[in-house]
Predict the 3D structure of the following.
Amino acid sequence: MTSEQPGLFEELAEQLDQARTEAYLIAEAEDYSYLPFLPGVEVGQAYPEIKDLGELAGVARECRRCRLRESCSQVVFGEGPPDARLMLIGEGPGQDEDIQGRPFVGKAGQLLDKILEAAGIQRSQVYIGNVVKCRPPGNRLPNPDEVKECRKYLERQIKLIRPSIIVCLGSMASQTVIDPNAKITRIRGRWLIRQGIKIMPTYHPAALLRNPSYKRPVWEDFKQIRDEYRNCR
Ligand code: SF4
């Protein structure tokens, strides 16, 4: 999957003011539980009745809320401990993920494994998911309406897992989690805190495969992530 898509979220940019207002409210709030985490998600929209990650996965597996389910083999919900301290969020399943039903198992996933290993972070201790749970046909980018529908699952995943750290892998994850107008080249490597969760945007491993010059900045980002991970709850 590609991860660079300047302008993809232009039609969602109008939600930016809402997101900023939300961020302000969040900063002021003591109880975050009822406030949406992701920009553009409305209160009560993201399966608030579901209190268990397994149940949410079951609902996602039956999902037909967007066209992506028509062409994929299976829903790739995500994997990892339900109480993981670190959550990695990518873009969407590729061909290998679609076949295996697991996130980040193709070439980009293998590179991610190496990065995690170099940082001393066990993959089995990390929750790994994507913005969209079904593979877009031909590995195209997910459309905004597909992201808008599927991010409700991501919203609930974040609420149920309550990680200490979220790492956004690539442009789409950063635009979905941080800001619809985010440009990964500008924001990577800097921490953001929302609802007590530290968020780090960095390049998608697939971008490293295409552009080896990204290896150095990604490693710098993961050194920060490693240090924060060692110190979090
Ligand atoms: S991509 Fe998400 S919203 Fe679309 S059908 Fe799959 S699970 Fe449902």
